[in-house]
Amino acid sequence: MIDVKDLFAEDYINKEVSISGWIKNHRKQKEFGFIDFNDGTYFKNLQIVYDNSLDDFEEIQKLHIGSAITVAGKIIKSEGTGQSIEMKLISYKLEGDCPEDYPIQPKRHTREFLREQAYLRTRTNLFGAVFRVRSVAAYAIHKYFQDNGYVYFHAPIITAADAEGAGEMFQVTTLDLDKVAKSGKVDYTKDFFGKPASLTVSGQLQAESFALSYKKTYTFGPTFRAENSNTKTHASEFWMIEPEIAFCDLEGDMNIMEEMLKYVVKYVLDNLPEEMEFFDKFVENGLLEKLNKLINSKFTRIDHEEVIKILKEAPVKWEFQPEYGEDIAKEHEKYITEYFNGPVFIKNWPKDIKAFYMKQNPDGKTVAAVDLEVPGAGELMGGSQREEDYDKLVNRMDELGMKQDELDWYLNLRKFGGCVHSGFGMGFERLIIYLTGVDNIRDVIPYPRTPGNCDY
Amino acid sequence: MIDVKDLFAEDYINKEVSISGWIKNHRKQKEFGFIDFNDGTYFKNLQIVYDNSLDDFEEIQKLHIGSAITVAGKIIKSEGTGQSIEMKLISYKLEGDCPEDYPIQPKRHTREFLREQAYLRTRTNLFGAVFRVRSVAAYAIHKYFQDNGYVYFHAPIITAADAEGAGEMFQVTTLDLDKVAKSGKVDYTKDFFGKPASLTVSGQLQAESFALSYKKTYTFGPTFRAENSNTKTHASEFWMIEPEIAFCDLEGDMNIMEEMLKYVVKYVLDNLPEEMEFFDKFVENGLLEKLNKLINSKFTRIDHEEVIKILKEAPVKWEFQPEYGEDIAKEHEKYITEYFNGPVFIKNWPKDIKAFYMKQNPDGKTVAAVDLEVPGAGELMGGSQREEDYDKLVNRMDELGMKQDELDWYLNLRKFGGCVHSGFGMGFERLIIYLTGVDNIRDVIPYPRTPGNCDY
Q1: Are strands B378-386 and B216-224 parallel, antiparallel or unpaired?
Q2: Which residue from A400, B82, B168, B259 has the highest number of Cβ atoms inside 10 Å of its Cβ?
Q3: The CA-based dihedral angle spanning residues A10, A11, A15, A19, taken in that order and rounded to the nearest 10 degrees
Q4: CB of A96 within 8 A of CB of A64?
Q5: Contacts of A67 (CB under 8 A, 6+ apart)
Q6: Rounded distance, CA B152 to CA B139, Å?
Q7: What is the distance between the alpha carbons of residues B368 and B350, in angstroms, rounded to a whole number?
Q8: CA distance A42 to A7
Q9: Looking at beta carbons, which residues of chain A come within 8 Å of B234?
Q10: Are A125 and A274 a contacting pair, CB within 8 Å?
Q11: How far is CA A49 from CA A5, A20, A30, A91, A93, in A?
């Protein structure tokens, strides 16, 4: 089976080929016509030219936009500008017709309209490109980690563990809710797992067990948040990558974050030049420059305390006043990447605003955590060295009022050959937003789930 | 950071290296000692030899099994049999101790015992190998599809669609069950999505929308069944691969199934020879022969009706009598792969025992469905050509009493340039069981979920 991609990649000039795909556009003249043809394997359309020397010329002229056809023809050098090759049609077969009320017409549709037609939107240039970037970026991530000896870990999706403060969780149950309502009580002994269960918000804790077996591991799977946020950057279901590395401290962690990100960005630029050029032209002017600059830059590494100092000294009237010991706002992230003119690792954060498992620094105030801020997107990844000291970890859990029995096994990882280890998390959709310039998370997930929305 | 894998793959003879990992075994003599050392990146241990010429000889002798250490030493050719290289120790640093009651001792543990220690079992030879095979097989699957121009599709996990008869589903909710019990009624307008939602049992229907945009697509993600089955082959949460291809009929579908499976098996054999040899020796005698035979065989393709005829004529006293128009049992699967001495595609199944979306054959009795049966494992994949005819699909849904409004979009795919298309599904764990010979699904999922079990 020949793909449109093959026709552009290899030399088919003067060869006759047969190929199946869809009609993207159809321009008819009295004595000839042009079909923009694509099978979805390549960004560019193949132009098919035909004229009235064909017996079925009149039938061909009636072919609808959106129809599936198989065409046979000769590949020739294109006379026109804008394409290198085209096909001179010999014969065709209609595989599937398409009515005139087909929603995806060759004109500009708003993203909002296309969101309503999610099952068809991949047929447009924009979304066709977005979800190919999503696919290729996913592969680049796998390739980076596998080439570097990481073991891919499928973290459990259903969990009975309560992820401390990581966010609101969806409950998973086989109890019949009508019966619960009728009986007036909830009997978890009758539930599928014999206890309450939820959808995971992170596979990190379990990934640590793999890191302490395989040294290097990564997750790549769906995670969930039941937060009632209707913003451009929040979805209830999204994919995360969570690498975890033994014998690796915060500096090593940052090295990997930086190397991995550059690898993935370069891989996508190298493998999807047409799509990336399209985004640069029509979605985010300067996108290619931004990404190429990232690949070639050395990421700044700076303490949170230093960042606050810079922000305080900045000649800017802040909406949120920067403070030592506190989180930083979007406006601060933006300023700091502009200040350093490139990506910035902000490290050693105040412990009170970070998670219980992070490595406590000797100063007693900070933890060995890091956020990566990139120009134009803000926080892209977050990581930390993990607390490998059993007693310190238990004490921190006590301070926070956390139950230990549920996390016995996690604590035991510190007992049984525990060692310095670190990891990080990257929201996959955040990466796709960064790579494409498409700024709404609903437009980079095939069938997004948000509060009140669960279609398809 | 050097890995144990590097030491065996490249020439480090007479070089001094520093490397971190864990003590798998420690044999002490009066004047010298041997440490079996591994960092989890390779199946084989690195043997570390040391003697009493070292100042801290006595401390070294006290090192516990399970401890994390960093060692510096010279790589030398091994005098002993069973390993090509070893390390002559120069110095060491204890990274994390391990008490004597460490559950993973260098002796044979039962798989049942290790299931109770799931967070540590990857440190054993057996499970270390199982989950590396899982990782490499996952990558091989991605590599096969990406190299062949498929777009990776992340199917939604939470769904409001009712997957007709595909199995019991888990409900996903943010309703407070205690409040539901107290109030005596279930108000789905208050639920997160404003309606009942569940965990997906298959991404196929949605994947079809990608196939009809990109021609070739595949899913690889978690799927769920809330069935109360406690068997060796059932888990409540498992990963599936669901490719879907436009302009592809059942024959083309089988070609892809066959090519993909051979590719993945070969990739794992080529990339993990030590692990696969271990499984052949200690888990399933004849595994390598079985897999190599598969790679080199031409899969038989035969109609369901023919299979029933062969079974009926077989000189066997069946527990379940084979019948035209009915499903076949495990004993039949076994017989038929032995009969053909290799993998068998059974195709064109009675329509009444297959799903609504399968292509209706002209005979009016069968559908263009296929199951792949492999020697020693039974059914490994199932696929079908999909019904692309709008009216036939609607009629079949009517016959089965299915509601159409929920699947409007799915039906519309037949209207808007719909075409012949096919796909298949492969349970990822079933593949891992086939590849390793480890026959319980609980032993090929890192943290398995089954009725009553949701630990970690």
Answers
A1: unpaired
A2: B168
A3: 20
A4: no
A5: A22, A23, A94, A95, A96, A97, A98, B417
A6: 13
A7: 9
A8: 10
A9: none
A10: no
A11: 18, 16, 13, 11, 15
Q: For A247, name the nearest residue in chain B, comparing CA atoms only.
A: B20
Q: Does A187 touch chain B (CB under 8 A)?
A: no
Q: Which residues contact A33 (CB under 8 A, 6 or more apart)?
A: A26, A27, A49, A50, A51, A60, A61
User: At residue B27, does pLDDT exceed 70?
Assistant: yes
pLDDT at position B59, please?
A: 97
pLDDT score of A176 = 96
Q: A146, B161: Cβ pair inside 8 Å? A: no
**B3 interfaces chain A, CB cutoff of 8 Å:** yes
Residue ranges of the alpha helices (H) in B62-191?
111-116, 125-147, 177-183
Residues 6+ apart with CB under 8 A from A395: none
Residue B11, Cβ density class (10 Å: 0-12 exposed, 13-18 middle, ≥19 buried): exposed
Nearest to B36 by CA among B149, B28, B349, B282: B28
Say yes or no for a CB contact (<8 Å) between B455 and A160. yes
**In chain B, which residues have their Cβ closer than 8 Å to the Cβ of A414?**
96
Query: What is the tens place of the pLDDT at every residue in B129-188?
Result: 999 999 999 999 999 999 999 999 999 999 998 755 567 999 999 999 999 999 999 999
B residues 281-310 lying closer than 8 A (beta carbon) to A: none
DSSP per-residue letters across B96-115: E---TT-S--SS---HHHHH
CA dist A342 and A340 (Å) reads 6
At B28 the three-state DSSP class reads strand
Give the SS3 label for residue A33: strand
The alpha carbon of residue A336 is apart from the nearest alpha carbon of chain B, in Å, by: 32
DSSP, collapsed to helix, strand or coil, labels residue A442 as: helix
User: Model confidence over A331-351: pLDDT tens digits?
Assistant: 999 999 999 999 999 999 999
Q: Identify the helix (H) or strand (E) that includes residue B373.
A: strand B366-374
- For residue B95, the chain A residue with the least C-alpha distance is A419
What is d(CA A301, CA A336) in angstroms, rounded to the nearest whole number?
12
Conformational region of residue B2, where left means phi above 0, alpha means psi within -120 to 50, and beta covers everything else: beta
Measure in Å the smallest separation between the Cα of B284 and chain A Cα atoms. Answer: 24
Q: Residue A25, CB half-sphere, CA atoms under 13 Å: how many?
A: 11
Percent of chain A residues topping a pLDDT of 70: 98
Residue B347 contacts residue B372 (beta carbons within 8 Å): no
206-225 in chain A: CB under 8 A from chain B: 206, 209-210, 213-216, 221-222, 224
pLDDT at A79: 80
Question: Residue-wise over B91-130: b if at least 16 C-beta within 10 A, else e?
Answer: ebebbbbbeeebebeeeebeeeebbebbbbbbbbbbbbbb
Higher pLDDT residue, A1 or A287?
Answer: A287
Beta strands in A313-444 (DSSP E): 344-350, 366-374, 378-386, 421-427
Which segments of A175-287 are extended strands (E)? Answer: 197-199, 216-224, 237-246
User: Element (H or E) spanning A20, and its range?
Assistant: strand A16-28
| Contact residues, chain A, for B447 at CB < 8 Å | 155-156, 206
Q: Which of B20, B102, B119 sits opposite A247 (nearest CB)?
A: B20
pLDDT band at residue A161 under the 50/70/90 scheme:
confident
pLDDT, tens only, A19-76: 999 999 999 999 999 999 999 999 999 999 999 999 999 999 999 999 999 999 999 9
CA R_g for chain B:
27
DSSP secondary-structure letter at B351?
G
Q: Are A69 and A31 in contact (CB under 8 A)?
A: no
Are B154 and A239 in contact (CB < 8 Å)? yes
